[in-house]
């Protein structure tokens, strides 16, 4: 069996045992998780753990999220394929790739240049051409590209940053972990009548969103 076949089998097992078994049913999300080679988004020394049921370190104190959490957050965005998506926290670029499979365009912002450059390199190599990258404070969002039909935040904030509420399109969905640095809830917000109405999806623990509208350090 070739190395690529080994990883393909590992991906299939990941989807069956970690994602579908936990109730993820959106066929488009499942197909994207089957397609995107997660092992290319982690360090060489961790490739054999890439499809495990846990997050992995990617440098700068950041992580690549557990596959189930990636699937859960993506499914909650309810992407149909015609959306412009804002991602706060490019990280490894894995979630970015999943979003690029499922939407028209992804705007992704990362605080750390080393992570952004590595993610950009992998995503370009894989042939994604529907992604715009920015280095900076993600809590400000990306005003000139707004409104967005979907926003996903892969780091925890004390509350939904005001600029993100403003940049969310009417009827748009935002998924974000909210809480203190040690304990958070994953929230889904839907914008109706100019207000973002929220509900709790899951109890989670993410790294902090550091920025003007996030944590200050």
Q: What this model shows, in words?
A:
- By secondary structure, this protein is an alpha/beta fold.
- The chain has a domain of 150 residues: 3-Layer(aba) Sandwich (Rossmann fold).
- Helix content is 29%, strand content 28%.
- It contains six helices and nine strands.
- The strands form two sheets. A seven-stranded mixed sheet has the order 5-4-3-6-7-8-9.
- Helix 1 runs antiparallel to helix 2 and helix 1 crosses helix 3.
Features:
217 residues, alpha/beta, Rossmann fold, seven-stranded mixed beta sheet, two-stranded antiparallel sheet, 6 helices, 9 strands
Which whole number gives the mean pLDDT?
96
Q: Which superfamily, in CATH terms, is the homologous superfamily of the domain at 55-204? A: Vaccinia Virus protein VP39
Strand composition percent = 25-35%
Oligomer: single chain
The SSE string, one letter per element, is HHEEHEHEHEEHEEE
> Helicity, in percent?
25-40%
CATH class of the domain at 55-204: Alpha Beta
CATH topology of the domain at 55-204: Rossmann fold
Q: Walk across the major sheet and give the strand order.
A: 5-4-3-6-7-8-9
Taking Cα atoms only, what radius of gyration do you get, to the nearest Å? 16 Å
């Amino acid at each position: 069996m070739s190395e690529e076949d080994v990883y393909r089998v590992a991906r299939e097992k990941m989807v069956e045992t970690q994602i579908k078994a936990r109730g993820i049913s959106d066929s488009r999300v499942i197909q994207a998780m089957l397609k995107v080679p997660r092992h290319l988004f982690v360090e060489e020394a961790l490739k054999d753990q890439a499809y495990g049921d846990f997050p992995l370190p990617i440098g700068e104190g950041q992580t690549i999220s557990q596959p189930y959490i990636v699937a859960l957050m993506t499914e909650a965005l309810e992407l149909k394929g015609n959306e412009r998506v804002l991602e706060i926290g490019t990280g490894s670029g894995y979630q970015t790739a999943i979003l690029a499979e499922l939407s028209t365009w992804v705007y992704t912002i990362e605080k750390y240049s080393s992570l952004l450059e590595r993610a950009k390199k992998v995503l370009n190599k894989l042939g994604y051409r529907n992604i715009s990258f920015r280095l900076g404070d993600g809590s400000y969002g990306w005003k000139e590209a707004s409104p967005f039909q979907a926003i996903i935040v892969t780091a925890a904030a004390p509350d939904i940053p005001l600029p993100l509420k403003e940049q969310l399109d009417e009827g748009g969905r935002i998924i974000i972990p909210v809480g203190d640095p040690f304990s958070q809830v994953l929230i889904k917000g839907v914008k109706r009548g100019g207000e973002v109405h929220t509900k709790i999806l899951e109890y989670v623990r993410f790294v902090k969103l550091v920025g003007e509208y996030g944590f200050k350090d």
